[in-house]
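## retry 2 of 3
previous attempt timed out at serialization; input unchanged, resubmitting
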Amino acid sequence: MDSTRSGAGQPVWTRALTGWHIVFWVLLVMTLALSFTGDLSGTRQLMYVSTAVVLGLAYQFIGRPAVQSRRAVPSYAYRLVLIASLMLLIGLYPQSVFLMFIASAQIWLLCEDLREGIGLSLLLVIGVGTAQLWSAGWGWSAFWNILPWMLVSLVVSLLFGIWIEKVITQSQQRAELIEQLESARDELAEAHHSAGVMAERERMAREIHDTLAQGMTSIVMLSQAASAELSRGGTAGTAARLAAIEDTARENLAEARALVAAFTPVALSEATLTEVLRRQAERFAAETGVDVRVALDLPDEEVAALPQAQQVVLLRSAQEALANVRKHAAATQVLITLGLSSDGVWIEIRDDGTGFTPGAVSGGFGLNAMRGRVEESGGSVQVESAPGRGTRVQVLVPALQEDA
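## retry succeeded, writing output
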């Protein structure tokens, strides 16, 4: 029969192998001791002791290693020695028949399949029965006395072996199932890890796009404007633009440090969302000349009480919408409105720019990043636009409870 292997690569039987060793040696020593109380002659006693010693040595140096290695040759060799030794021991001293118990177990212990166990069990019973018949002096009377015992022993041995085979088969199936479950668990953990890594990368990409990249864009545009003014010989607005470049660079540096340390925007850690939006509007107006206004449909104290996660999503959405206005809209006016509805908090950015056809545009990284951030928070993004009619972006974030 196929042996189930444990975590150490051993057959399922070996989990109780110490017990089998003890039983074997106890029975062998008891049999040897009882033989001295019998009426064996000196020669028979010597043969008996020698056979018991041979059986013990065979078990120690062939049988036990065979249980561990599952090698076929040592396994067959030991069991043949076992059957031959039992025949001689029982033939010399019939009371040794109780060694059949451990012998039958060892035969099944070393079997690789059911047919092998049945064949060797049959050989054991026939061999032991023959030895008993020889000890009884042959004769039909002795044969008929021994035959029932032989049949009972064979049936018990076969039932014992078949039961053990089923136990081992079930154990093997359970071991395979456990291995599959562990493999599935490892694959699931790896998948979760990979998903977490990808989510973290996307979040970092959004943070960099919404902060550092937009700040760098502002610096480039301000530098180009200052350079163009200098090339025309003008210096009136150069100092203001250089100051704006310095402010933007300092803010970008602070954002970069915040990205390393955490993900809360520096601006929100120093001011309320309303104040940050107004600063963003003032800076955008100064850099682009676009008239930007901020309107609140809820009191300042309610804005300040919003959970930090909501404020981050709303701020990043406004920044991305302004970046799109800067790049594509050619607008003259922008209105940022922050409000509260039964569904949650919303922010709307409306411009009077050139507009576009939403269905005809694949959408750059910025709009996709905005959608991804908002949808992660359970919210939604609506974009309404048409060529020549401006654009309206509305972000709705469901109501959240600040952690206690």
